[in-house]
Structures are given as structure tokens and as C-alpha cells.
Design the sequence.
């Protein structure tokens, strides 16, 4: 009788242990799939954010250049100011989004671009008002605006590295 009870208990216990092991393995597999999905979603979010930030930073740089040309060629009109401010606002929104999703190594480059763009914007607006700071001229503003392009290349490289699409790693 004891042998029979032990045999039945062993059979039932073995089935129970096998079931628990199977459940644990399935749970680990589900956790792994979830982790991979989160990584994929995070990369997709960063990719979209980076594309938008790159586009809007380039458009802000171009808008600053265009505004400087307008200031040289004719008087600035409300439509010109609005176009520049729209580009600035779009960049600000994208940069704010990047601050929430980009890793620090990308934010260092994005922050440098943001700072440079805002400094050039300040110069342009002071020149437009006829109240430039000491040493600020149309030429210094144009030169500072031109230097932003190198910062944009650095930012784009950092973003591409983060996404794993850069060849120069």
C-alpha cells in the first residue's frame, strides 16, 4: 500500500513539477518577447523623434539664413518674422521631445545645436531691431549661422549611431 501511494504521489508530483517548469519557461519567453517589443518601440520612437528634430533644426537654420538675406535685401515684414518664429517654435518642440527620449550622448549634440541656433536667433533679432550687441554685425551673424551646419552634422551622426545605422562605428 505504501509503495502504491508513493508511486501515485511520485507520478502526480512529477506531472506537477513538469507543469510548473513549463509555466516558468513560458513566462520567461513572454518576458523576453515583451522586452524585445519595448526595445523595438523605443527605437521606432527615437527614429521618428530624430528625423523630426533633424528636419526642424535644418529648417530653423535655413530660416535664419533666409531672414539674414531678407534683412540685407529689403525691410523685414511680418510674414518674414512669422516664418522665422514658426521655424524656431517647431525646432523648440522637437528638441523638447528629444530631451525625453534621447540618450545623453545624443542630447549633448542636440543641446549644442539648440544653443547655437538660439544664439544666432538672438543676434538676428537684435540686428533686426537695430540694437546689436558689441561686435554683432550681419557678417558675424551669417558666420555663426553657417557654423551651425557642422553642429547639425555632429548631431545627425550621434543620432545615427544611437539607432545603429552608422557605418563609422
Sequence:
Amino acid at each position: 500500500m505504501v509503495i502504491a501511494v508513493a508511486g501515485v504521489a511520485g507520478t502526480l508530483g512529477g506531472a506537477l513539477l513538469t507543469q510548473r517548469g513549463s509555466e516558468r519557461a513560458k513566462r520567461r519567453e513572454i518576458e523576453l518577447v515583451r522586452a524585445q517589443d519595448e526595445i523595438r518601440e523605443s527605437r521606432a520612437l527615437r527614429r521618428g523623434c530624430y528625423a523630426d528634430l533633424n528636419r526642424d533644426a535644418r529648417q530653423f537654420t535655413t530660416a535664419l539664413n533666409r531672414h539674414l538675406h531678407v534683412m540685407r535685401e529689403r525691410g523685414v515684414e511680418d510674414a518674414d518674422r512669422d516664418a522665422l518664429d514658426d521655424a524656431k517654435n517647431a525646432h523648440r518642440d522637437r528638441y523638447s521631445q528629444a530631451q525625453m527620449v534621447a540618450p545623453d550622448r545624443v542630447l549633448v549634440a542636440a543641446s549644442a545645436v539648440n544653443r547655437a541656433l538660439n544664439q544666432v536667433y538672438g543676434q538676428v533679432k537684435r540686428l533686426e531691431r537695430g540694437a546689436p550687441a558689441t561686435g554683432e554685425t550681419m557678417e558675424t551673424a551669417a558666420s555663426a549661422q553657417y557654423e551651425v551646419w557642422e553642429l547639425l552634422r555632429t548631431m545627425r551622426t550621434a543620432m545615427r549611431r544611437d539607432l545603429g545605422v552608422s557605418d563609422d562605428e
About this structure: The chain has a mean pLDDT of 87.
